[in-house]
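ok trying this again, last paste got cut off
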Amino acid sequence: MFEDYPDILTVEEACEALRVGYNAMYELLNSGKLKAYKNGRTWRIPRTALTQYILENAKIKQI
């Protein structure tokens, strides 16, 4: 899904991947809805966390 991105993304890269703004991204990170960790003051988001977030929150009807 996000093969073109590195295994660990910055906030900027994650915003681009999810097509959301910085405010929305920091809301997801601070609320814990998107799994990530802080390296000092900088957020780092695993690529697998983006995929997991999309799959858990997608409104896909199962057949």
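PB: full thing came through this time. The mean pLDDT is 92.
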